[in-house]
Design brief:
Family: Belongs to the G-protein coupled receptor 1 family.
Subcellular location: Membrane
Protein name: GHSR-like protein
Strand order of the largest sheet: 1-2
Main location: membrane
CATH superfamily of the largest domain: Rhodopsin 7-helix transmembrane proteins
Shape: elongated
Low-confidence stretches: 1-18, 57-65, 291-299, 396-423
Radius of gyration: 27 Å
Pfam family, one: 7tm_1
CATH class of the largest domain: Mainly Alpha
Mean pLDDT: 76
Number of strands: 4
CATH architecture of the largest domain: Up-down Bundle
Number of helices: 18
Number of domains: 3
Structural class: mainly alpha
Strand content: under 5%
Length: 425
Amino acid sequence: MSEPDTEIQSAIMTPVLNLTSTLYQILMAMQMDPNMTSEILALPPEDQLHFIESLNLNSDVQSVDLEDQRMLIPEYRVNKAIGLYLPPFLLLMGTFGNVMTFLILRNKAMTRQSTNLFLAALAIADSTVLLVGLLRRWLGDILQMDIQSESDWLCKTVSVLGYSSSQFSVWLIIAVTIERYLVVSHPLHTSRYCNLTRAKRIISSLALLIVAINIHFLFTVSVHEHEHGLKECGSIAEFRLLVTVVWPWIDASLYALLPFLLIVVFNSLIIIQTLKATIWRAAQNGPLINTADKRKVFKDNNIKLTVMLLSVSITFLITTFPMAIVMVFHSAWSNDFENVPLSVMAQRQLLRTSAEMLMFLNHSVNFYLYCALGQKFRNQVLKTLCRSTVSANSNLSDHSQHLYCSRVKGYHVHNRTTCFDETNL
């Protein structure tokens, strides 16, 4: 019998008083995923006992090391590869993109439009999600520990920041979508509905409201240290119903269900209004005779910006929908650990990890969507790179700098790169 199996049998046979301690020893021998370990240890005592018994009864290959046995499961191998290699890629791509987005949108040429203010705030929220959520998850997989459980203040702070930043990001997308609907449906009142002052008030109000909703984590969760040394960030006893039963549904509604409904409704209205406006312009300008005429209609800056913002909200729908489904089934999965074999557990882990990676992808790709679909944003990026390159190569001749910067539709005057004023994306 292999060493891990011996440890499991020893843990089961040892007459210990603490059932949770016994279960912890078994899970450590199995090298169970830290997140799943915490979930299993949170089960009621009778479910913990059933889980231990099911492990003892369902061990089909006693002579094979349990880790080797799990490595024979394709889903388990894929899950480990995704958890190890994908997060650093998303972190680098997302952090670079969000920082660049913020710098570009806070440029003087881009700060005159309220939409850009929303998108700059979105870049900050997305960066926070990646640092608090994805980075912590990746380090936990590498170090086999959850940083959030290392101290009480980390437990509370990470909980508040994690939930607040993800919800704030989603509702900023909703705010941009509603603003775009107002621009498309009421173009004559754009200056009244969409201005910097109103945008600042909306952003501040959303931030304060969402933090107020999540501030309860400062007194509803804390670090619990078990006798076997395991630290776990979980709910305080008197708030267990709120944190484990009520709150998941509130979070699902704020992050997925209600945003899905609002984004689908307003995107549909935007598409309908845009098509109506396009048809009306075509009627005013006469029949569209050739492709060139069609292009003139669709080259309208307002339509371009609308298409780009639609891509942001549609990307949100596609990348977060799987996580919404997993959140619905997660509570049911947590209650039947003792009834499933290792292969099914590996499949569930893979589904959850894949859904989480898609969710984090949503917080990483906006910069690249702006560059792909926003010509003026793309020009501003090129102009920023132009200035940086010229500054780094100050020994270039005036003629060389002119040739370089002319490629990004700028012009050079007296050793200074000046670019066209682009206030829209």
